[in-house]
Amino acid sequence: MPAGKLTSGRTGLGALALAAFLTWLVEPALALYPKKGDSAPHHGVRDARRKTIQGIDVSRWQGEIDWERVKGAGTRFAFIKATEGGDHLDPSFRRNWAEAKRHGIARGAYHFVWWCRSAKEQVRWFKKHIPRDPDALPPVLDVEWQNGSQCTRRISREQALEKIEAMLKGLREHTGKKPIIYTDINFHEDVLEGAFNDHPYWLRSTAAPLAKRYARDRWEFWQFTTTGRVPGITGDVDRNAFFGSEREFDAWRQGRFDIGSRKWHGGEPKVAARKPLPTPAGARAPKAAGGTQLRFVPPARIPARTADSRDVATTGSVRRN
User: Fold this and answer.
1) For this structure, is 158 an active site residue?
2) Where is the sequence biased in composition, kind Polar residues (predicted)?
3) Per-residue pLDDT reduced to its tens digit, 263-286
């Protein structure tokens, strides 16, 4: 083959390899549930698509939902908007709440906080409308700054934490379950960093891994896109992933595992007993020597060669002569 054509061929292969690499960066990772999609996928959240336990969150804006098809697409849980502030009930809440349960989807209700209303008013309101269903997931307190809404008030961090604490207490008293905290990047940075760390956190990041957006060691739920597509829902829907195992998810639902503090309340996985080590090769003397079992000195009991060969200043160390 002429040299010029050979060079051209190598250049073509290089271009193809580069194109494949760029496609890998842009295209989303292979989803665990192929029936679900995204109208505007982002490679920064590709890890969330591989999580085993995935769900959605919905409100009136998703219209009438075909929950049978939602279930068939692999949806394991749904957070359903119930209340907002101190006087708003989502008009689709009761229907979504009943239909999700009827189709075997674990569901929890969420309350959207308004900073213009007192905590007492909001507690009274969500206690009136959020069902006390022992089969439901723990409730969610949705805390964000209300940019672009009628309530644009920015209260201090201390005031916000005081209100949040009162509403978390109210939700727990009402449902008997430790609430989940939903928030976004800005509000977490302004208010929640280092606060309520024993509560489960549900965090939003639609363009990057959570570790790059939040100063937190752990989280329990990730809202990874607001442009998800799920059979049974017309248009976009928020998609979420649970960070945990099947065992943890089931035990959390049963009240045996606290996903916020990572503590078990019975039924925790048992650590398998260590099997004895097999007899090492050469453990017996040669037949010519009688085949007697040899004794091996454990490493921790190897005697020092001289009285001063061990460095007493360093545990477990032996000075080299």
Assistant:
1) no
2) 312-321
3) 999 877 775 555 655 555 445 555
The active-site residue, picked from 144, 158, 162, 173, is: 144
DSSP category for residue 286 = -
Neighbouring-strand partners of residue 228: 38, 237
Q: Which CATH class name applies to 38-264? A: alpha beta
Name the residue type at position 91.
Answer: P
Q: Which residues contact 210 (CB under 8 A, 6 or more apart)?
A: 203, 216, 219, 222
What is the residue whose two structure tokens read 């302004």? 190
- pLDDT, tens digit (0-9, with 9 covering 90-100), for 228-260: 999 999 999 999 999 999 999 999 999 999 999
**Residue partners of 305: CB distance under 8 A and separation at least 6:** 321
| Whole-number Cα distances in Å, 203 to 19, 118, 148, 170, 182 | 33, 24, 21, 22, 6
For the chain, domain boundaries:
38-264
Q: Which DSSP symbol is given to 296? A: -
